[in-house]
Amino acid sequence: MAETRITQIVYVVCFLCLLSDIITGSTLTAEQNLQTTLLTGYKSNLRPGMNRSIPLDVNISFHIFSIKEFQESTGKFSVNGAFVLEWNDERLAWDPNSYDNLTMTNFPQTQIWIPNLVNINPFGDISGLGSDLISLEVYSTGYCKWVPYQSLSVICDADVTKYPFDTQYCTMNFFMWSYKKNSVKITITSPTVGFSLYTKHGLWDIVNSLTYTNPTVHGYDEVIVALWLERRTAFYISSLIIPMFSISMLMGLVFLLPPESGERVGFITTVLLSYIVFLTIIQDKLPESSEPGLSIIGYILMICVIWGTLTTALVIISLCIHNAPNDQSLPGFIRKCLSCKRRKATVENIKVVKPCDTKTESLVDEEEDVTWADVGKAFDRICMILCILQGILTVIIYFGLVL
Q1: What gap in Å lies between CA 130 and CA 109, rounded to an integer?
Q2: For residue 121, what are the CA distances in angstroms to 80, 178, 192, 224, 283?
């Protein structure tokens, strides 16, 4: 009796397995029959819509996956992303009950009508969306969903005026080619770009985005995907800004060296050569664009090089003053300026004042001996103050303009 029960169970299991194979084969056959029926007499070059006076509604949104590159010098901006396009095609509707309750099937994009969205500001050749590897989802109601993954390269004119604290504005512009807005009505389902699958870029942050349509004078609806990019500045601050201003501040310290040491010319020449070598090293990091204007940091670098050259000339002049022979007479205005300064310093140091016994007695000898060494010290002090002020003002002006 037990053996009979086991035999019956085995028969039932075998029957169910056979029935499962039959059902699977029937479903596959049903989908094949469905696609054959739907494509019979179907014209993929004709847009959907039984009433041709009513425009077809196409819903569009854009999702970005990553930023490939942004070359400021050439204006090439590349991203990876995907559009989501949705519309209804009554010719592709069916009754699920007639096809084993099948509610969805897939078609290659070459077999049915798709919106021919074309990028009109490409960096390379003009091309449409999608490829033969991408298929569409078609539902029994006639609802069609197409998600073409795309690597897009567009032209984006960079404004590097505030480099490396710059923000760039780039757009990707598309036309529904051959279909004006009285034939195809475009609706943006999301006013911003989708970031659910976005991978952050090492040099750029996307701080804002916008997706919208712009009607043109020719009757087409232009689809615009706009992105605002902000450069990540940590790398540039540590490798460009800080070294640049540090080398610049060293120039003023040359006047602290004793003139008799003979190291002034060597020091300032070394600093100037270091600055030039630094410029050569960072040349690849500096933007090459000249429109709409050169970067402010380019002007700052030019000013620093010119100031370094001028400082070298001032060092040579200072050494000439220090080494001038004492028997060479000083210009009158220089002698007068230094004498006045000494008188002022001497008077400030007097703590007790007593009446003079004679009219000829004075606090300070007006014929004080002023040497070329005194002139050199005063000149060094003035030059050092000017160099420090130049460095501080350069930093303040630069960050005041870029921030």
Answers
A1: 8
A2: 16, 17, 20, 11, 30
- What pTM did the predictor assign? 0.76
Q: Which residue has the tokens 């993929």?
A: 44
Task: Check: CB of residue 227 under 8 Å from CB of residue 247.
Answer: no
CATH number of 235-338+366-402: 1.20.58.390
Quick one: what percent of the chain has pLDDT higher than 70?
82
Given pLDDT bands bounded at 50, 70 and 90, which one contains residue 43?
A: very high
Exposure b/e, 110-143, CB count within 10 A at least 16 = b: eebbbbebbbebebeeeebbbeeebbbebbbeee
What are the residue ranges spanned by the domains of the chain? 56-232, 235-338+366-402
CATH 3.30.450.180 fits 56-232, yes or no: no
124 is written with which tokens?
A: 């390379």
Q: How many CB atoms lie within 10 A of CB 258?
A: 10
Count of CB atoms situated within 10 Å of the CB of 83: 22
Tell me: pLDDT of 18 over 70.
no
* Helix, coil or strand: residue 264: helix
| pLDDT exceeds 60 at position 348 | no
